Amino acid sequence: MADDRGSPCFEHCIFAIVSSKDLPASRVVEIQQTIEDHAGQVIDIAGDGTLNFDDITHIISTTSDFPQYSAAREHMIAVITPAWIAASLLRNKQAPIRPYTPDPKLFFNQVNVTCADIPTGDKDAIIGAVLAMGGMESSSLTKTTTHICALTMDHPKCQQAIERNLKAKIVLPHWFDDCLKLGKRIDEGPYQLPNPEIFRLNPEDAVPIPATTHIRGATSPHPDTFPIPTDFSSPRQLDVFKDKTIMISADLGIGSRLRKIIEDLIVDGGGQITNSVHNADIYVCHWRSGRDYKFASRAGIDVGNLSWLYHLITHNEWTSPLRRLLHYPLPEDGIPGFKDYRITLSNYGGEARIYLENLVIAAGAEFTKSMKQDNTHLITARKSSEKCTAAEEWNIEMVNHLWIEESYAKCQVQKLTDPRYTHFPPRTNLGEIIGQTQLDADVLKSIYFPEDPTPSPNDPKPVRRPVMHEKDRNTSSLRKSSEHSATSDQDDKDTKDAKEGLEPKPKTAARPKPKPKSAASLDQLSTPVANRRISAGKENATPSSTSSRSAKDKALSKLHGLAPDIALYEKEKKRKGHIWGGERAANKIDREKRSLERSSSPAAKHDIDEDDYSDEDVRTPKRAKTGSSLPPVSIRLLITGYKGWLGNITKEDTEKKKLRELGILVVQDPATCTHLAAPKMVRTQKFLCALATGPTIVSSEFIDACIRDGEVPNVKDFLLKDQENEKKFKLKLQDVISRAKANKRSLLRRVPIYCTAEIPNGPETYKAIVESNGGIFSVYRARGGSTIKPTNPEDDEGPPEPVYLLTGLRPEERRLWPKFNEMAKAGNMIPRIVVHEWLLDVAMSQQLKWSEQYLAQNES
């Protein structure tokens, strides 16, 4: 029979399998048989669902929503989906853990991507992002490939996928970009070739409101009706409360009849009811306040609200009360900062709309069904509706639902400057990703139930739930003293690993972070690895300051503790290619070195724009004595009007790489450039926006000289000289640059500038120029709610200040002029209706000048 068994793929592996609706008992039996046929071992889970982490190496589950998921992470136990078993058998060795984790933060964990006709720099970025977020990449097309990233259908990989009838989806790189900007995985449909919807339809065209399962049963913190499940046969038997003791708080405000029904269901399902929180395993309440709430939370008891209790009864399956925002008790005074907010919604429907209404109220803000000028925020799933248009005109903050969800989860108002909250993919209704945000247990603890420095005799034991156990009992005393700090340190490290794309380390005991205050304290707080080498008789002894241990012995002890990290570092140094966002923990030293180098270079203090061609200087570890390493960036070059790359993408790609090898990074964001290359003084958007930063302006010949000579020439020899245009614009370029440096991008600070929607070249062109110079920009449509806000409200006695309207000469634009005049005068402002030449001249000269020749009526 031994010959009939498969290869020993799972030798030395001990599994526990968590059954669920997605993993029924029949499937569990199949997986167990497969594991045992390949030298693995499966142990049974205890009747109360607890796991002994000393006896297992892997947990198989289709979801992270089971009682001991957090504890498993603390113990560094690998949690994997059943697909990991199949992938390991296919490789005939154990597959990587990360692509098969059910962690919802790794939203690319089921993606296996291969790139087709994508430029090298973009390809590296996409692959790195997929790896960082739990996905996989393959250089060739295989049966396991789920996505092909391509620009057209002409590539052989796309043709092969069609001919072989593979299930791989052929998507534009825009899909990966939008997923990363949101931090969530959205539907690929609008991005699929050969006829992608984002190019075929307009962004403002109707999009169906999607259905979502993430908020089902969690739309209200206090449901009005008792749930009537339809997925249980009669007579009904609950087992989710088996061997559990539940306390139902009086602050729920439910009647005696409903309370009796709930208690009977719990008792009939094998649970018990208690009136003392000291005896409870589950505590159900409405508010995050009171002695019982703090007691239960500190003791590790599951704390949820009535909505969560109904969810357990309805689905007969355990779920964490932290999994859904409205399954956890509410903050009694709301979230700080929301009290003065008036919030309304747009483009959400059904359960999603009810959920957001209740979430806004739970946060402490005022919800309004209609929008008025006194609204402070508009939460919308798309940037297309009458409310969205009005929000832009009335200067009302417009965000997606991630802002309110993460503010509630983190118990503080999140900054609106985070681009995740203001990103709206063109053909996606963001309602499809609603309800995926979870509460942060550490934040709740720090705010609502911090450790009591003076506990009473009636307080519970430090932790009711299982904590980390060492098999080496000789270190128990040391471990108890440092267990709390070790757990919190590991949680922080897990979060950092998820962001950086780090692979989980093999199972090992978490160790407290040493705080070397003295030689004695350093020995006391040494890692468990080092402590195992100390004899049992001296383990708990406090070393004296006159210890005979030499400095060499201390160094060796530290070196032993760092051995795994050093080995991993050496292994990563041999890795070929760039893994953007997926650097391992061993590269921490390199990242710190690069951080110091960047901070010492004034030119490198700006962040690299997402649309820049290349950022190898950030994602490539700097290696000593390696000819292929890239030099630090000394010049951030913005290029405009250059004709050397027109119609030749290959040449552009190659020559940008050559420039990067010389320390020149080609950027697209004018705000980050240190140098600007142009054939002459041109009034392009790039030139005028970059001019506001006061860059060094060179001739386009500078680019040709760098590529031709293979080295960076003296920049002073290539300074732009354009006497013809200086005479035309009546200025000196060097004087303009000096004024720009003095202005510090604030030439138009506090100057309100409006623009008609129909102006030639579009409002976005002028918006970029205005905002680059610190101005206030808005599109003017002459609707009833548009108002002028005085630029100096503290000084009502001062003279009126000007307000500008950029306009063309079309009839539909001229009709707006009288209304703008009325609006400006009503706001105690001087109306100036000007042609776009005024703004171009101001930006080019870096002087806020005025002449009546710019008035649009003169042009008429």
Give a written overview of the molecule.
This protein is α/β, with parallel strands linked by helices. It is built from 30 helices and 24 strands. A 4-stranded parallel beta sheet has the order 2-1-3-4. A 4-stranded parallel beta sheet has the order 6-5-7-8. Helix 2 links the parallel strand 3 and strand 4. The chain is globular, with a radius of gyration of 32 Å.
Top keywords for this entry?
four-stranded parallel sheet, Rossmann fold, alpha/beta, 860 residues, BRCT_dom, BRCT domain-containing protein, CellCycle_DNARepair_Reg
The count of helical stretches stands at 30
Largest sheet: 4 strands, parallel
Strand count: 24
CATH class of the largest domain: Alpha Beta
- The number of domains is 6
CATH superfamily of the largest domain: BRCT domain
> How far apart, in Å, are the first and last alpha carbons?
96 Å
Strand arrangement, largest sheet?
A: 2-1-3-4
**Approximate strand percentage:** 5-15%
Cα-based radius of gyration, to the nearest Å: 32 Å
Q: What coarse outline follows from CA principal-axis ratios?
A: globular
Oligomeric state of shown chains: single chain
CATH third-tier fold name of the largest domain? Rossmann fold
SS-derived structural category = alpha/beta
Q: What are the segments in which pLDDT stays under 50 over at least 5 consecutive residues? A: 462-549, 576-586, 596-628, 790-796
| Helix percentage range | 25-40%
Mean pLDDT: 79
InterPro entries: BRCT_dom, BRCT_dom_sf, CellCycle_DNARepair_Reg
Region (Disordered): 448-556, 590-628
Biased composition (Polar residues): 475-488
Protein name: BRCT domain-containing protein
